[in-house]
Specification:
mainly alpha; 2 helices; 5% strand
C-alpha cells in the first residue's frame, strides 16, 4: 500500500482520513500542528491534513483485468 502525506483529492477519502485522525485526537493523541486554530478534534484533523502533517495509506487498486462491474462470471 502506498503511503501519502498530501491531502487526498477525493472528498470521500479526505473525510475518512480526517475522521480517523479526529477519533485519535478525541482519544487523547496530541495535535501535530503547533497552534491549532480550533480546539474541535475534527477541525484540528482537517488542519493537520491540509498542512501535510499526516501519513495515511490507501488500498491497492484492483488489476485492470478485473471485471469493471463487479459481477462474477461463470467460466
Amino acid at each position: 500500500m502506498p503511503v501519502f502525506t498530501q491531502a487526498p483529492e477525493s472528498q470521500f477519502a479526505y473525510v475518512v482520513v480526517a475522521g480517523k485522525r479526529a477519533r485519535q485526537l478525541m482519544s487523547g493523541a496530541a495535535p501535530l500542528v503547533a497552534n491549532p486554530r480550533s480546539q474541535k478534534p475534527t477541525r484540528v484533523a482537517m488542519e493537520e491534513l491540509n498542512a501535510a502533517q499526516l501519513e495515511y495509506r490507501t488500498p491497492d487498486l484492483p488489476e485492470e483485468d478485473a471485471d469493471k462491474d463487479g459481477k462474477r462470471h461463470k467460466e
